[in-house]
Design goal:
mainly alpha; three-stranded antiparallel β-sheet; 8 helices; 8% strand
């Protein structure tokens, strides 16, 4: 019989991971919504005065700080589940070292070039949305003050939608990175398994990957692309954005 590290029931494990992710996502979503809204409001204010949509000073820096805080929480939470499950077998990571190790891993995750690029893209998209809204206003024949009055009420909706998508996508990637990094620390011989959500919203490529088992240090094949875990930033955007899949571990006796 296959021995799974955390829960023998795959779909129950998926539900547990989903609930934990949601607890980490919610505060990030609120903070992202506030940050993006504030940056947009400042861009509109400056544009109304100068006719130029600026790149808001420190917007990207504040976004990076939000990503870092999220990564520390996600890596620690998902890493702890793997480490706790491995205690009955073997672990080479002492409890007193856990927090420092997980923080180091979280900072390593955020420091990846792909993640830094995504943070930059979030900041640039904030500005491009305002630039596009201004262009639409001019196309409709509106004056500068009218355009500003038209855009301002749209900011909460624009920021809210993006905050939800970003929070789900980025939390998911960081959490599964933490899980796989903790699996390395256990010292156990493990395989990993892709667990897809079994509903109509699941991507076809992810449904096809459901139950795929590979070595702990091997990549999954997702629609012809390689990824070490669900939400891996090296996967194409269409395989990552709002992904709800989970990762499980099988102990090799």
């Amino acid at each position: 019989m296959v021995r799974r590290l955390i829960d023998q029931n795959r779909q129950r494990e998926l539900r547990r991971q989903t609930l934990l992710l949601e607890r980490i996502e919610r505060p990030l979503e609120r903070r992202l919504r506030s940050e993006i809204s504030a940056a947009m409001a400042e861009m509109i204010r400056v544009w109304e005065l100068t006719g130029i949509v600026p790149a808001v000073q420190d917007h990207q820096t504040r976004l990076a700080a939000l990503y870092q805080a999220m990564a520390i929480a996600a890596v620690a939470a998902f890493g702890a589940r793997v480490m706790d499950a491995s205690k009955s077998d073997h672990t080479r990571l002492e409890t007193k070292d856990f927090a420092a190790t997980m923080t180091r891993l979280a900072l390593s995750y955020v420091g990846q070039e792909l993640i830094r690029r995504r943070i930059t893209d979030v900041a640039e998209t904030t500005r491009s949305q305002i630039v596009s809204a201004v262009a639409r206003g001019y196309a409709d024949g509106l004056g500068q003050n009218e355009i500003a009055r038209t855009i301002r009420p749209l900011v909460p909706q624009m920021a809210g939608y993006r905050a939800r998508m970003i929070a789900r996508t980025e939390t998911h990637g960081a959490a599964n990175y933490g899980s796989t990094a903790a699996a390395d620390e256990t010292g156990l011989r493990l395989q990993k398994e892709w667990i897809a959500a079994a509903d109509e919203r699941t991507r076809e490529t992810h449904a096809d990957a459901d139950g795929q088992v590979v070595g702990k240090d091997e990549a999954f094949d997702i629609g012809g692309s390689s990824g070490m875990y669900p939400g891996d930033p090296s996967l194409p955007a269409e395989e990552v954005i709002s992904c709800r899949c989970a990762i499980g571990y099988i102990v090799v006796d």
